[in-house]
Design brief:
The protein is mainly α. It has one domain (about 1-90). The protein is about 75% helix and about 0% strand. The radius of gyration is 13 Å and the shape is globular. The termini are close together.
Length: about 100
């Protein structure tokens, strides 16, 4: 299970640099699913603050109703912050 957290973090850190637009479309799908899973996992172990945080990440990266920010710096901050969330939270979940 921690592999999901680490792969997601790696993809987000890679997204902080300039990549082709197709990468960001794939990133939305992967991170939305991983963040939703992380939110559910944290909710099931009574870590509601982490669950809410990952729920917000899932909403930000939602590919069906995308959030459009046309500022690359803003996305860099979001990508790095979300990546750090996955890394830090990986230490708190079992498996």
């Amino acid at each position: 299970m921690k592999l999901i957290w680490y792969v997601s973090a790696g993809l987000l850190f890679l997204g902080a640099v300039s990549m082709p637009s197709g990468y960001y479309e794939l990133l939305r799908w992967v991170i939305c699913a991983a963040a939703a899973f992380a939110a559910y996992t944290n909710y099931s172990i009574d870590k509601s603050s982490w669950a809410i945080g990952f729920g917000v990440v899932a909403l930000i990266f939602n590919p069906l109703a995308p959030l459009y920010l046309y500022d690359k710096f803003a996305w860099m901050v979001i990508d790095i912050s979300a990546g750090l969330m996955f890394v830090i939270n990986s230490k708190e979940v079992d498996g």
